[in-house]
Design a protein that fits this description.
- By secondary structure, the protein is mostly helical.
- It has 2 domains: 6-49, no CATH class; 54-157, Cytochrome Bc1 Complex, Chain D, domain 2.
- The protein is 58% helix and 0% strand.
- The chain contains 10 helices and no strands.
- The longest helix is centred in the first third of the chain and has 20 residues, at 6-25.
- It is elongated, with a radius of gyration of 28 Å.
- The N and C termini lie far apart (64 Å).
- 15% of the residues are buried.
């Protein structure tokens, strides 16, 4: 095979450079042609950066938490109203409490429960509240913990009512 002509190679590179510069100087035409996909990509990026889905959190809450805390997270005879508690904590504490700790009443850093609490729960003593389970091993909770926090903080700050959130 004969060696490539250096002038042919240089002219090809020059044509490529001119074509690329023409594309970049006419950027508005490219943007209009790709407008819909760019908007979709921007929306997907925003969803990835969002603090969580209130609707998805509501679904997890209804499935895993509402039977004890009530359908609107306002408490029942079994478990307390979560709204004032969530108002007072940040996302890191919420995740730690829900995924790894049993007792919401204990201050951060303390054990998951005292021996007396465990004995009372095992003996089913009347009036003894059963502590909340740790949800770390539950895939639907751990995968949607940010959504659960988004739902509960929306309920706590009043931006979400007791009903089904809008998708």
């Amino acid at each position: 095979m004969p060696p490539a002509n250096p002038w042919t190679r240089a002219s090809s590179l020059l044509l490529l450079a001119l074509a690329l510069s023409a594309c970049s100087s006419n950027n508005s035409g490219i943007e209009l042609q790709n407008r819909k996909p760019a908007e979709q990509l921007a929306r997907e990026r925003q969803e990835a950066l969002s603090p969580g889905s209130v609707y998805s959190g509501w679904r997890v809450f209804q499935d895993k938490c509402a039977s004890c805390h009530g359908p609107a997270a306002s408490g029942t005879a079994k478990a307390p109203d979560l709204l004032p508690r969530v108002r007072e904590m940040g996302s890191r504490r919420f995740v730690g409490l829900v995924l790894t700790r049993y007792d919401w009443a204990l201050p951060p850093g303390q054990a998951k429960g005292s021996e007396a609490q465990i004995d009372a729960a095992l003996q089913r003593q009347p009036g003894m509240a059963v502590s909340m389970p740790a949800w770390q091993g539950e895939p639907s909770v751990s995968a949607h913990i940010v959504d659960l926090y988004a739902y509960l903080t929306a309920r706590a700050d009043g931006s979400q009512g007791a009903g089904v959130p809008v998708r």
